[in-house]
Amino acid sequence: MGTTESSIVDSARARPGLLLVVLLGGLLLVDLAAKLAGFSILPIGEAISIDRLGSNLWNGVVIGLVIGLAGIGLSMTYSILSFANFSHGDLLSTGAFTGWGVAFLIAGFGDIPVRALLTVGDAGSATPGDIGAHILSTPVAILVGLLVAFAATAAVALALDRAFYKPMRDRDGISILIASIGAALIVRYVIQFVYGSDRRGVTAAIDASNLAFDPLGLSVNAHELTIVVAAIGLMLAMHFMLQRTKLGTAMRAMADNKDLALVTGIPAERVVTATWIIGGGLAGASGYLYVLLRGTIQFDFGWLLLLLIFAAVILGGIGSVYGAIAGGLVIGIVFTTSTVWIPSDFNQAAAFAVMITMLLLRPEGLFGGVSTA
Fold this sequence. Notes:
- The protein is mainly alpha-helical.
- The chain folds into 2 domains: about 15-50; about 50-360, ABC transporter involved in vitamin B12 uptake, BtuC.
- Helices cover about 70% and strands about 5% of the residues.
- It contains 15 helices and 4 strands.
- The protein has helices spanning about 1-15, 15-35, 50-80, 90-110, 115-120, 130, 140-165, 175-195, 220-245, 245-255, 260-265, 270-295, 300-315, 320-335, 345-360; strands at about 200, 210-215, 220, 295.
- Helix 4 runs parallel beside helix 8 (about 175-195), helix 9 packs across helix 10 and helix 9 packs antiparallel against helix 12 (about 270-295).
């Protein structure tokens, strides 16, 4: 017993930062329990109902799944190509606009001009209600839009690789990183030129589209259920590919030791091509699902979301696919539940605070991603 107590004391002395985080986390949990009971211990925040807490947690899971799905491609790019791809956020925007353009075309074909549909409402006066894009009323349009978002963004990601990254493959990571910033600007302003710069609504509103779970105090939207099913399905498909296929084995080998993988005869260029196709496709799908969740679209939303995706990838362990998923869920839950104590304008700061804390206490992340110099 004395030995155990001594080891705990020694650990606390060796890592005072960890002890501080544990104490702060415990204090927040106690304060949360007090707020649920109707009073507060800390001088920030107000009392909260179980319904609101359940809603915050559910929203955090949904947002976290979208961020985690987007983070998979970013982690794959880093682990195999060894650079942080700053054009990744604009791939989300690419998938959103191309996918929703096709979804609009299917949902509103015959009643609204084709140009207005393909440009997601920028070239016409039709409202989301006129087009009627909703998972309950136009499920085929929503599903086909998701597939198009994946395919179109995979093609754009592969084109960016052939145009910018492949000629620079043997250069240092900083050069390719700067090239990715340039590629991001090109993609972003091409999207702005084609689709316009204004924010507009996308999804239609349908009565009785929510499911109530009274014991948990939850009201779950049909679109949220669609996002959860689609995101988990894509993640499971990714897991199967990595663990059960030759391509997945080759990808894991390239991520672990590129030189050894080349010596053993793994076709490096094929693996790189597959990385861009899969990573870009997942980015496009996550952008499409994010718009399904928010109900609005704007040309630069992917760039604005990129910092949260980076935070999730770093938190989970940069280079780790499973770390990106776990990091996305943590960031999403922190993003929504932090509003118990702070205004919603500052919830991104709370997410980044968690990321910085992880870097200080465990730089390799939750899943110990690829080590960097």
